[in-house]
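Ticket #4471: structure export looks truncated?
Reporter: QA, pipeline team
Priority: medium

Steps to reproduce: submit the single chain below to the structure queue and open the exported record.
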Amino acid sequence: MKEIVNGTIYYKDAKGNLIPEDFVKPVDQLRDDLIERIIKKTTEIKENMEITKKGILEDIEAFMDISAAEYGIKMGGKKGNLTLTTFDGQYKVSLKVSDRQSFTEGVYLGKEIIDKCIERWSNGANANLKIIVNQAFQLNQSGKMDIVKILSLRKLDIKDEEWKKAMDIISDSIQVDMTKTYFQIYKRNKEGVYQHVNLNFSDM
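Actual output as written to the record:
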């Protein structure tokens, strides 16, 4: 991207050095200008989408309050997933609320107890069990533990008090980092099938 310093145009390179315009190839200047225009347009679209999303969520919340008032109910707290459909069934709006979860340090305490359980038990099938446990606690591509995999250990029919204690500790170690609310719009086609109205550039 270019900068103007004391009336002279410079282009900043990847190392942060300011290169005078005269020393930058015309094609590199054109590329920078093109990308700058694209970024400006997409930034404006993103900001408008964020404003639109906020307004739509507020409209849905207001409608839910009005709908609840019809039955003499006052809505309170976080509203969950719901689907709104037009009277003719042509369109529907699906509101989804999802929690992003992670583990506290309790998950490591639980893992420590599990390891001791496996060491304490007789051999036999424990080698396979250790593989299952280690795979469950592996970090994913984002460098985080997979909550679903770890919690799946609770499905193992193991009647051992220490094991059960570890499962309880792991369950208690789950915390909600962030709650994300989003909506999706669907339109019914001629065959009566609802199709997602795509608002994602990446999938177009």
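Status: closed, not a bug. The export was complete when the record was re-opened. Leaving a note from the reviewer for reference: Helices lie at 26-69, 106-120, 126-136, 147-151, 161-172.
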